[in-house]
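Q: I'm teaching a short session on how sequence maps to structure, and I want students to see two examples side by side rather than one. Could you give me a first protein with its sequence written out and its structure tokens following it? Keep the formatting plain so it prints cleanly on a handout.
A: Of course. Example one:
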Amino acid sequence: MKKILSLLTILTVLASCTPTPENVQQSNVLPPIYPDYCDVTIPQNIAPLNFLLRADCEAIEVKAGDITINARGNEAVFDIDDWKALLQQSADKSIEVTVSALINGQWTAYRPFTWQVVSDKVDPYLTYRLIEPDYEIWNNVQIQQRCVENFDVNALGHYEKLENRCMNCHTFANQNPQLSMMYVRGPGGGAILNENGILSKLNIPGSVYFGFSPTGRYITYSTQKIIPAFHSDPSKRLEVYDSESNVCVADMQEHRIFTSPLLSDSLKFETFPTFSPDGKYIYYCAADSVSLPHDIKQLQYSLVRIAFDEKSGTIGTQVDTLYHQRSVCHPRVSPDGQYILYTVADYGTFPIWHPEADLQMMNLQTGKIDTLGIVNSAKSDTYHSWSSNSRWFVFASKRDDGLYGKPYFCYIDKHGKAHKPFCLPQAHPSFYDNNLKSFNAPELGKGKVPFDVEDVAKAMKKESVTFK
């Protein structure tokens, strides 16, 4: 009992030592918090938006709804249970947030901002590659999965277990954690297919970008020879282009690969294929071939589609062009089939080092294009994926420093309006300041995948399933 009383006494003394606001000076500017969580829309199930104040302050006070944080220093960290209770009672409502800071002996209260909480939840799991943002674009790659409702992280692929091989992104079938695939490159590599936690290695040669059909029977993928080259423009650092590329389809039941002359034209580059949610189309990007690398700035990819019959496994006979004004990458159709989201850049097929790279969203019913001004930044905004309810998407953005990519979440309301995106929250507000890895290829999933690093390492030792 004496020990308990002593502990309570210590905690009381520590709490009393934290300064609280008095003689507060009002400011009409928003607080310089990082990440920038001012006036963002968030899902009801997101982890606490912990942040720090970019100021040399002695103490900070944050009020959000009925939560009050008083802390020394410049960091605001929410108790996760209090946070969940706050979001639960604030669904489809706004939370006003006020930040006050003690700087040079003077308390300043910044202009309040809001968090709009929506009951449309985001898929709870996010997979991504962690990659060093240098010229060795494949070195020391990891694939991780994070629960966005809290801060739990588990590894799916790790370079130390896979002989430092390059690993392509981990892709779900319809955001389903029981059916997914990742590609491990190099000798003895292959596509690692996850079916209900059972992993198999598929010999699908040269596959880079891929997507599942709605039933999961077919995978459409691109084969390409990728050439990295240093860029003459210092703002772009590195240019990557395809010396050749085609689109194919793999039948997962009959273990056969097929294509069409329209998808493997020797005078064109075809890449980034993805199925429509109803399986009736394959959307992809296509460009007329040019002399590379000399004419790289003339390399323009259009957004196109071709019909597909999932029942018979046949490809259509006509290619329709949907957009051809800039160079398009990474098309993804929303699960409800209403929108297609894609990246546009001035040229080429590797936009992560293009600061002009932005996201655009096309309404597939009307053809209207939203340039997503509230979403994009002055730096690269690229690879993206949808939540299963079509109300959220996640994308990789280098908006902070042009070097390190981070996952940002954007809400699309029932009217198709995009809201200001927010960065993936972390347990420690200074995480991104200290992190030396770039988040790459974020993918949303409805649940936790039933395998880990050790399972992938074991699957790599298996005999490959051969496709003909």
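Q: Perfect. Now a second example for contrast.
A: Example two:
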Amino acid sequence: MKVFRPFISCLFFLVSFTAVAQQITYKEVKDIPYYPNSSDSYINEKCKLDIYYPENKKSKATVIWFHGGGLTGGAKELPEYLKNKELTIIGVGYRFSPKVKVATIVEDAAQAIAWAFQNIENYAGSKDKIILSGHSAGAYLVNMVGLNPAYLQKHQISNQDALGIISLSSQAITHFTARNEVGLKETQPTIDSLAPLYWVTKDASPILLITGDRELEMVGRYEENAYLARMLKLVGHTDVTLLELDGYGHNMTYPAFPLLVKEIDRLLAK
């Protein structure tokens, strides 16, 4: 009988642990306006949040997630992989070009992030544990807001207040939709005030840049991120990481999400 006691003890622990884990329940709230007093019909249509959070436990961190779509389409989303991981997730909707300019879309992103800082305590989160993240156009938005301090300063928030930035296949030069607004082709590289590269600084939150395989990604996407990482390091940023997912193209969120969660755990442990 002694031979089986460690097994029985281990089994009891696993059952008990599973029972505790199952006690965490989650709630989802949809279509919360982050411009709450707007009379603009397009703002009221698009500028909304969905929130997923633990009902009976403090979340370990909050992920503000911006969807992709070239700044011309898409819809707010709560990534399935991030659910049931003791996280608060905020899926952000925003306005699109050509109805508004790209500069206005970046302002939407800043407004949504500011809303989260101001209200996250009501959704099991903490202001000091907010992650800015997104894919493609969404990653571009978090890099713009995370690197240029002016966007959040308008809301009395520092861009360094975020626990971290986790960017999945962002453009680092001026977004091709912004270039299209002024008649430039997608193959005409530009770095101006609508480029994350324009705002490289040592004074930003930790940044993880993830792209797909350089041979399978969108045109120049890996190279742009490699240049962004290099320039951030050259100006003195001390916590920048670049990862390339071999064998994956632009639609690389599936293998990237486990890396996102791992990075959150790393940042929480600092």
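Q: What should students look for in example two?
A: Point them to this: The chain is about 35% helix and 20% strand. Also worth mentioning: The CA atoms of residues 34 and 115 lie 6 Å apart.
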